[in-house]
Amino acid sequence: MDKRTYWATKSPLPEFHSIIIEHPAFDAPFRLVANQFEEVTLGGEVHLPAGMSIKQPDRQSDGQPKLTLSFSREQVGRDFKQQLQKINSATPAPLRVRYSVYLGDQVTPQITWDLFASDSAGIAFSNTAVSINATVDNPMRRDVGPIYDPSVFTGLTLL
Fold first, then answer.
1. CB 14: neighbour CB atoms within 10 A?
2. By three-state DSSP, how is residue 14 classified?
3. What angle do CA 151, 146, 140 make, to 5 degrees?
4. Separation of alpha carbons 88 and 128, rounded Å
5. What is the C-alpha separation between 9 and 75, in angstroms, rounded?
């Protein structure tokens, strides 16, 4: 691809990739913006800069969307790990991950994905990075039987 084709196809508008990680046990949600040098206000909230690599969900396939992101452990890893330790069985809620792309407008995102950290290898810590795999599958809704409704399950009304 030559320079002429690149600049003809690439939007000249500023582009921001925002990640918000939240859980009821956290003191406050983690708001990160990818590959910026200073804090950025997106959607009225201040996002911290973090160097990260993002593999966006595939929008063309029929499969389940999956977001894979990895950010530097040196920048926010310690704070993130301390907040994760606050999650226990008393707060049975999934770890929510919101990925948004802001294109030119810092108030309204162009694309937003609301995802959940997956159970298997959802969050992984290495010496240099924190990796998160998120899908649309809410782990709290798996293996849940139907709610008992006497109008539907009439067998117990005779007892």
1. 12
2. coil
3. 145
4. 26
5. 33
Q: Which pLDDT score is estimated for 41?
A: 92
DSSP assignments along 80-126, one per residue: HHHHHTT--TTS----EEEEEEEES-SSS-SEEEEEEE-STTSEEE-
Q: What are phi and psi of 88, to 5 degrees?
A: -140, -175
- Of 21, 6, 14, nearest in space to 93 by CA: 21
Contacts 24+ apart (CB under 8 A), 13-17: 13/103, 13/104, 14/103, 14/104, 15/101, 15/102, 15/103, 15/104, 16/40, 16/42, 16/47, 16/101, 16/102, 16/106, 17/54, 17/99, 17/100, 17/101, 17/102
Contacts of 33 (CB under 8 A, 6+ apart): 16, 17, 18, 19, 39, 40, 42, 47, 48, 49, 50
Residues in the chain: 159
pLDDT digits (tens, 9 = 90+) for 47-80: 988 888 888 877 666 667 788 888 887 777 778 7
Task: Kindly list the distances between the CA atom of residue 83 and the CA atoms of 57, 68, 130, in Å, as whole numbers in the listed order.
Answer: 26, 20, 14
